[in-house]
Amino acid sequence: MTEPQRGRTFSPHVEYSLFLIRDEDDYDSQPPEGIGIAYLQVAHGVVYVASTIQEHETKAQLHVWPGAPEERTGGELLGQVTLFSKSGRISLHSMTGGPEGQWLELEGPGLYEVRVYRFGGGATAQARRDEAVRRIGDGEEIEMPTDLESYVIDMWR
Fold first, then answer.
1. DSSP state letter for 93
2. What sign for the dihedral angle of Cα 108, 67, 48, 133?
3. Three-class SS of residue 15?
4. Residue 64 has pLDDT above 90, yes or no
5. Strands (DSSP E) along the chain, which ranges?
6. CA atoms within 13 A on the CB side of 85
7. Is residue 10 pLDDT above 90, yes or no?
8. Share of residues in the chain with pLDDT > 90 (%)
9. Of the candidates 51, 23, 64, which has an alpha carbon nearest to the alpha carbon of residue 117?
């Protein structure tokens, strides 16, 4: 497999079981209808990625390739969509914004294919999150798990 031209690891906060892959400057901030139905929904300048878990922190590795990379093994392929980037910069955000200033330079403005894989997640991860919320609510001083799921995002022209 060829090597990616560039990459970055993001730590988006998943809110309402979603996070965004979006153009840094030009995107539609209103989710499309039926957002919870599909794993990947596309609107103007943004891809909405659906998680199997409610509120939590996740890790996402974003790679920009010179051409279509081979499909990955081991993760769950959520889908492949086309995204237009007006600015030539992409970032990952929670539904309510942020983190600001964390973006990755693409090969310039234009259309990009976006393929998203999820690793982990599901009912077991949701149960771990719910148990941590319960224990924190009961006054225990524990950290919320941050390894519930992760993502790999491949992009290319």
1. E
2. negative
3. strand
4. yes
5. 6-10, 13-14, 18-23, 40-43, 46-50, 56-57, 59-64, 76-85, 89-93, 104-105, 110-120, 149-156
6. 25
7. yes
8. 48
9. 51
First to last CA, the chain: 17
The Cα–Cα gap between 66 and 112 comes to 11
122-157 pLDDT tens trace: 788 888 888 988 999 999 998 888 888 999 999 999
Which tokens is 107 given? Answer: 């090969």
Tokens representing residue 13 in the block? 């906060």
Among residues 93, 10, 7, 99, the alpha carbon closest in space to that of 49 is found at 93
Q: What is the pLDDT of residue 37?
A: 46
Give the containing element (helix H, strand E) for 132.
helix 122-137
**Contact indicator for 53, 24 with CB cutoff of 8 Å:** no
Q: How far apart are CA 63 and CA 59, in angstroms?
A: 13
